[in-house]
Design brief:
- With about 190 residues, the protein is mainly beta.
- The protein folds into 2 domains: about 40 residues, no CATH class; about 130 residues, Lipocalin (Beta Barrel).
- The protein is built from 1 helix and 12 strands, in the order ββαββββββββββ.
- The strands form 2 sheets. It has an 8-stranded antiparallel β-barrel. The chain has a two-stranded antiparallel sheet with strand order 1-2.
- About 10% of the residues are buried.
Protein backbone atom coordinates (compact mmCIF):
# COMPACT_ATOMS: atom_id res chain seq x y z
CA UNK A 1 0.00 0.00 0.00
CA UNK A 2 1.28 3.45 -1.00
CA UNK A 3 1.36 6.31 1.55
CA UNK A 4 0.04 9.67 0.39
CA UNK A 5 1.46 12.80 2.05
CA UNK A 6 -0.96 15.74 2.01
CA UNK A 7 0.36 19.28 1.49
CA UNK A 8 -1.19 22.74 1.54
CA UNK A 9 -1.02 24.87 -1.60
CA UNK A 10 -1.78 28.60 -1.65
CA UNK A 11 -3.94 29.89 -4.50
CA UNK A 12 -4.37 33.61 -5.24
CA UNK A 13 -7.50 34.94 -6.98
CA UNK A 14 -7.78 37.99 -9.26
CA UNK A 15 -8.26 40.35 -6.28
CA UNK A 16 -5.08 39.14 -4.59
CA UNK A 17 -6.92 37.17 -1.91
CA UNK A 18 -5.28 33.91 -0.92
CA UNK A 19 -6.87 30.58 -0.06
CA UNK A 20 -5.23 27.32 0.84
CA UNK A 21 -6.15 23.98 -0.70
CA UNK A 22 -5.19 20.70 0.88
CA UNK A 23 -3.67 18.55 -1.82
CA UNK A 24 -2.98 14.84 -1.53
CA UNK A 25 0.31 13.36 -2.70
CA UNK A 26 -1.08 12.63 -6.18
CA UNK A 27 -2.09 16.28 -6.72
CA UNK A 28 -5.81 15.83 -5.96
CA UNK A 29 -7.75 18.14 -3.65
CA UNK A 30 -9.04 16.99 -0.29
CA UNK A 31 -12.66 16.43 -1.38
CA UNK A 32 -14.52 17.19 1.85
CA UNK A 33 -12.78 20.52 2.51
CA UNK A 34 -12.67 21.74 -1.05
CA UNK A 35 -16.23 20.73 -1.96
CA UNK A 36 -17.37 23.08 0.83
CA UNK A 37 -15.27 25.90 -0.67
CA UNK A 38 -16.55 25.19 -4.17
CA UNK A 39 -20.13 25.21 -2.84
CA UNK A 40 -19.54 28.57 -1.11
CA UNK A 41 -18.08 30.08 -4.29
CA UNK A 42 -21.04 28.74 -6.27
CA UNK A 43 -23.49 30.37 -3.85
CA UNK A 44 -21.69 33.71 -4.24
CA UNK A 45 -21.85 33.43 -8.02
CA UNK A 46 -25.51 32.44 -7.90
CA UNK A 47 -26.40 35.43 -5.76
CA UNK A 48 -24.32 37.83 -7.85
CA UNK A 49 -21.46 38.41 -5.43
CA UNK A 50 -21.28 41.05 -2.74
CA UNK A 51 -19.88 44.50 -2.19
CA UNK A 52 -17.09 42.95 -0.12
CA UNK A 53 -13.66 44.05 -1.26
CA UNK A 54 -14.64 47.39 -2.85
CA UNK A 55 -14.42 49.41 0.36
CA UNK A 56 -11.77 52.10 0.48
CA UNK A 57 -11.05 55.54 -0.95
CA UNK A 58 -11.17 56.39 -4.64
CA UNK A 59 -9.74 59.58 -6.14
CA UNK A 60 -11.27 61.17 -9.25
CA UNK A 61 -8.79 60.95 -12.14
CA UNK A 62 -10.71 62.15 -15.20
CA UNK A 63 -13.93 63.94 -16.13
CA UNK A 64 -15.14 63.22 -19.68
CA UNK A 65 -11.70 61.82 -20.48
CA UNK A 66 -9.79 64.92 -19.31
CA UNK A 67 -7.42 64.69 -16.34
CA UNK A 68 -8.37 66.74 -13.29
CA UNK A 69 -8.63 69.63 -12.86
CA UNK A 70 -11.09 69.59 -15.76
CA UNK A 71 -13.65 72.09 -17.03
CA UNK A 72 -17.14 71.60 -18.32
CA UNK A 73 -19.24 74.22 -20.11
CA UNK A 74 -23.01 73.83 -20.03
CA UNK A 75 -25.16 76.05 -22.25
CA UNK A 76 -27.48 78.41 -20.43
CA UNK A 77 -29.93 80.97 -21.86
CA UNK A 78 -29.21 83.72 -24.42
CA UNK A 79 -25.69 82.55 -25.24
CA UNK A 80 -24.56 82.41 -21.62
CA UNK A 81 -22.96 79.29 -20.20
CA UNK A 82 -22.23 77.73 -16.84
CA UNK A 83 -18.60 76.88 -16.25
CA UNK A 84 -17.83 74.00 -13.87
CA UNK A 85 -14.26 73.17 -13.00
CA UNK A 86 -13.73 70.02 -10.95
CA UNK A 87 -10.56 70.30 -8.88
CA UNK A 88 -10.83 67.16 -6.75
CA UNK A 89 -13.23 64.34 -5.99
CA UNK A 90 -12.77 61.70 -3.29
CA UNK A 91 -15.19 58.81 -2.85
CA UNK A 92 -15.10 56.74 0.34
CA UNK A 93 -16.85 53.35 0.34
CA UNK A 94 -17.39 51.82 3.79
CA UNK A 95 -17.73 48.13 4.49
CA UNK A 96 -21.25 48.77 5.86
CA UNK A 97 -22.55 49.78 2.38
CA UNK A 98 -22.36 53.57 2.88
CA UNK A 99 -20.52 56.12 0.78
CA UNK A 100 -19.28 59.67 1.19
CA UNK A 101 -18.34 61.74 -1.85
CA UNK A 102 -16.38 64.92 -1.25
CA UNK A 103 -15.61 67.29 -4.10
CA UNK A 104 -13.99 70.69 -4.64
CA UNK A 105 -15.01 72.76 -7.64
CA UNK A 106 -15.48 76.17 -9.20
CA UNK A 107 -18.81 77.20 -10.67
CA UNK A 108 -19.91 80.40 -12.37
CA UNK A 109 -22.34 81.80 -14.90
CA UNK A 110 -20.41 83.35 -17.77
CA UNK A 111 -22.35 85.99 -19.68
CA UNK A 112 -22.36 86.01 -23.48
CA UNK A 113 -19.13 87.49 -24.83
CA UNK A 114 -17.51 87.64 -21.37
CA UNK A 115 -14.55 85.64 -20.15
CA UNK A 116 -14.57 83.48 -17.02
CA UNK A 117 -13.27 85.21 -13.90
CA UNK A 118 -11.54 83.90 -10.83
CA UNK A 119 -14.04 82.58 -8.30
CA UNK A 120 -13.56 80.98 -4.89
CA UNK A 121 -13.29 77.23 -4.65
CA UNK A 122 -16.41 75.56 -3.29
CA UNK A 123 -16.68 72.21 -1.62
CA UNK A 124 -19.58 69.88 -1.03
CA UNK A 125 -20.18 66.36 0.09
CA UNK A 126 -22.80 63.76 -0.67
CA UNK A 127 -23.61 60.69 1.40
CA UNK A 128 -25.76 57.64 0.85
CA UNK A 129 -25.64 53.92 0.33
CA UNK A 130 -24.14 51.70 -2.35
CA UNK A 131 -24.48 48.15 -3.56
CA UNK A 132 -21.85 46.38 -5.66
CA UNK A 133 -22.53 43.20 -7.68
CA UNK A 134 -20.89 41.55 -10.65
CA UNK A 135 -18.72 44.55 -11.60
CA UNK A 136 -21.58 47.05 -11.22
CA UNK A 137 -22.08 49.49 -8.38
CA UNK A 138 -25.20 51.56 -7.66
CA UNK A 139 -25.06 54.70 -5.51
CA UNK A 140 -28.24 55.94 -3.83
CA UNK A 141 -27.75 59.45 -2.41
CA UNK A 142 -29.35 60.25 0.95
CA UNK A 143 -32.22 62.75 0.77
CA UNK A 144 -31.23 66.17 2.10
CA UNK A 145 -33.89 68.04 4.03
CA UNK A 146 -35.80 70.53 1.92
CA UNK A 147 -34.51 69.09 -1.37
CA UNK A 148 -35.84 66.60 -3.89
CA UNK A 149 -34.46 63.08 -3.81
CA UNK A 150 -31.59 62.62 -6.20
CA UNK A 151 -31.64 59.68 -8.61
CA UNK A 152 -29.36 56.69 -8.13
CA UNK A 153 -26.15 56.62 -10.13
CA UNK A 154 -24.95 53.43 -11.79
CA UNK A 155 -21.28 52.76 -12.32
CA UNK A 156 -18.93 49.95 -13.21
CA UNK A 157 -16.07 48.76 -11.06
CA UNK A 158 -13.13 46.88 -12.52
CA UNK A 159 -10.18 46.19 -10.25
CA UNK A 160 -9.26 49.48 -8.59
CA UNK A 161 -11.24 51.71 -10.99
CA UNK A 162 -14.81 53.02 -10.85
CA UNK A 163 -16.40 54.58 -13.93
CA UNK A 164 -19.65 56.50 -13.40
CA UNK A 165 -21.76 58.20 -16.06
CA UNK A 166 -24.60 60.55 -15.15
CA UNK A 167 -26.44 63.60 -16.43
CA UNK A 168 -25.75 67.05 -15.00
CA UNK A 169 -28.81 69.29 -15.16
CA UNK A 170 -28.37 73.04 -15.05
CA UNK A 171 -31.42 75.16 -15.73
CA UNK A 172 -32.92 73.82 -18.95
CA UNK A 173 -29.68 72.19 -20.15
CA UNK A 174 -28.35 68.70 -19.63
CA UNK A 175 -24.78 67.52 -20.01
CA UNK A 176 -23.60 63.90 -19.88
CA UNK A 177 -20.65 63.43 -17.50
CA UNK A 178 -18.31 60.47 -17.20
CA UNK A 179 -16.14 60.36 -14.11
CA UNK A 180 -13.31 57.88 -13.61
CA UNK A 181 -12.00 57.23 -10.10
CA UNK A 182 -9.08 55.07 -8.97
CA UNK A 183 -8.56 53.46 -5.54
CA UNK A 184 -6.11 55.51 -3.47
CA UNK A 185 -5.42 54.34 0.10
CA UNK A 186 -3.72 57.66 0.98
CA UNK A 187 -7.12 59.38 1.46
CA UNK A 188 -9.25 58.91 4.60
Amino acid sequence: METVNPSVHMVTNRRGEQADFLMNGSGGMNRAMDLKRIFAIGLLALHGGTSRGVEGSYLAQTMNGNRLPAELRVAATAGNFRLFRLEQGVLRLSDDGRFTLYFRYYHQLVMRGAKPTSTPVMSESETGTFEARDGNIAFTPAKKSGRKSRPSISATIVGDQIRAAYTLQSGGSEQRITLTLRRDPSFW
